Amino acid sequence: xxxxxxxxxxxxxxxxxxxxxxxxxxxxxxxxxxxxxxxxxxxxxxxxxxxxxxxxxxxxxxxxxxxxxxxxxxxxxxxxxxxxxxxxxxxxxxxxxxxxxxx
Amino acid sequence: xxxxxxxxxxxxxxxxxxxxxxxxxxxxxxxxxxxxxxxxxxxxxxxxxxxxxxxxxxxxxxxxxxxxxxxxxxxxxxxxxxxxxxxxxxxxxxxxxxxxxxxxxxxxxxxxxxxxxxxxxxxxxxxxxxxxxxxxxxxxxxxxxxxxxxxxxxxxxxxxxxxxxxxxxxxxxxxxxxxxxxxxxxxxxxxxxxxxxxxxxxxxxxxxxxxxxxxxxxxxxxxxxxxxxxxxxxxxxxxxxxxxxxxxxxxxxxxxxxxxxxxxxxxxxxxxxxxxxxxxxxxxxxxxxxxxxxxxxxxxxxxxxxxxxxxxxxxxxxxxxxxxxxxxxxxxxxxxxxxxxxxxxxxxxxxxxxxxxxxxxxxxxxxxxxxxxxxxxxxxxxxxxxxxxxxxxxxxxxxxxxxxxxxxxx
Amino acid sequence: xxxxxxxxxxxxxxxxxxxxxxxxxxxxxxxxxxxxxxxxxxxxxxxxxxxxxxxxxxxxxxxxxxxxxxxxxxxxxxxxxxxxxxxxxxxxxxxxxxxxxxxxxxxxxxxxxxxxxxxxxxxxxxxxxxxxxxxxxxxxxxxxxxxxxxxxxxxxxxxxxxxxxxxxxxxx
Lengths: 103, 410, 172
What we know:
Chain A is mainly alpha-helical. Helix content of chain A is 76%, strand content 0%. By secondary structure, chain C is mainly α. Among the domains of chain C are: 79 residues, NADH-ubiquinone/plastoquinone oxidoreductase chain 6, subunit NuoJ (Four Helix Bundle (Hemerythrin (Met), subunit A), Up-down Bundle), CATH 1.20.120; 38 residues. Chain C has six helices and no strands. The longest helix of chain C has 25 residues.
C-alpha cells in the first residue's frame, strides 16, 4: 500500500467518524465538533495530494488548506455563537428540542 | 591575531564541544545524542537561569521596598558557615517544594489535574527551540520560526483551562476563565506588534531577522529595530503584551494573591505548584528572548568594536537585562482591575498595533529616501504613531478621574 | 516513514473516535484537541510545516478556546451533566450511514490505481514562495477570506450578545 493510500484511508475514516458524530449525537457542540473533524479530513486530503501529486511545487494544496483553516475558524465562531444563542432561548443545547421558529 | 583566533573559537565552542561528544558515540545513535545534548544544554542553561531569577526578583524587590530580601540561606550542615549572600536560596526552595505534600482534591479530575502542570512546562520549554542564541547557535533553524513560537506559546492556554477545570473548584474555574480572557485578549496585540518586523525584514526566520539588524552607522550606532519610530512603538507594545501574556505584575490578575487565593492554582500544592511557577518563568524568559531577538538585535553587539565578545554572551546579557526590567516594573506599578485590563487591550493596544503596522509599511515604502528626506521620513513616521497614541490615551482615560471611592473612607 | 504515518493516523483516529463516544463534553473536547494536534503532526510529516503551525495556532490556540468556553457557558448546575445519546435507533442509523460511507470510500481508494510520485523527500516550498503565491495568484481569495472572517466575527458577537438595544448597559 502506498503512503498516499494510507493518507486517503486516514482522511476517509476521520470523515466518517465526524459523520457518525454529527448524525448520532444530540448535543449541538458535539455536532459542530463533528463538522470540524470532517473539515480536517478534507484538509488532510489536500495535503496528501499536494505531497504525492504530479506538481508539488505549485503549492496550491497548501494555499487551499490555509483558506480552509480560516473558513473553519469563521465557522467555529458563528457556530458556537449560535449554540450560546440557542442555549439562551431554551436553557439546553439538545438539538431535538430546537425545533421552533419563534424565539 | 591570537585574539581573533580565540574569539572565533569561543563563538563556536558550544558546537565544538557537542560535536566532540557526538564523535564518541556509535554511528546509529549519533543523531539522537546530537539532539539530546542540545536539549540538555537548553534545560541546563535556562534551568539555572530559572533557579536564580526568583532569587534576583526577591532581592531586587526587597531593595526597591527598602528591605534586604533573602540573605540567610548558607550551606547545609554548616551552622555558622558563610552566608554567601543567600545565593543557595533556590536550592532550599527546591527541596521545600519537592518535600511538600502533594494534595489532589477528592472530586478532582485526577488525570487532567496531573496533566495540566506537565503540559504547561512542556509547551513553555518548546518555545526555546527556535530562538537564535548566537551566531551559530540555533537549535532548530525553522523557516517559519516566528509562527512556531506563537503556536507553541498559545498551547499553554489549554493547560490553564485544564488546571482550572480539573480542580473541580468553582473559584479555580472562574479564575481560569479570567486568565484565559486575559491571555486571549493580549495574544492579539502581541502577535500584531511583531508583524511590522516581519514586514520590514521580509522573513519569518528568527536568525534572518537578527542578521537584518547587524549593521552600524559610524561603527557605534546599531541598526536595531528598536531604534526606529515604528520599532520603538512596537517594542513598547510588545513589552506590555508580553507582561500580560506571562501573567506578570501589573497584569497578574489571574493569581492576584491578595485578592483571589491563587486563581487557577488554588488546588495545586508541592511540586505541581512549582511546575506552574517554573512554566511562568520559562514563558517570561522565552518572551524576553523573543523581544531581544526581534527588537534589540538578538546576539548582535551594540558597537562594531565590541564584536570580540562571543555572540551568545550578548544574547544572554540582553535577556537578563530584560528580566531585570520586568522585575523593576513589578516593583513599581500597581495591579490593574479586570475591566481596565480588557479595556486597555481592546481600545488601546489593538488599534495602536494596527496603526504601527501601517507605520512600518510607510517606512518600507520610503526606504529609498536620503539626505533631508531622511528627516522627513523620521518626522512622518513619528507623527503616525505619536498622534494616535495621544488621542487614544486621552479617550481611554476620558471621564474616569478623579476617582471616587464608594466603599472606602476617604 | 510509513511507520510514523501509521502511528500518527492511529493517534488521530483513536482520539476522534473516543471523543465522539464519550459522555463528558469537556473530555470529548480535549480529546478532539488531541486529534487536531495529530492532524498538525500529519502536516509536519508531509513537509507542510507552515500549515502545521497555522493548524496548531488556530485550532489549539483559538478554536479549542471557543469550544471550551461554549461548553462552560451552556451547562446547568455545578456538575457537568453527562450528554446521553438521543436514542439507540438514532445511534444505529448514524453508525450505518457512517459505515456505509466509509465502506464506499475505502473500496474506491483501494480499487483505484494511483499514479503516485514516489519521491521520498518532501517538496520544498519556502514561506517566501508561499507568501508570493498568496499575494499573487490568490490575492482575491485572500481578500475574500479576510472579509469572511470579519463578517463572521461581527455576526458571532451580535448572535452571542444578549443585550437588547433598549436595555442600558449594565454598569457596576
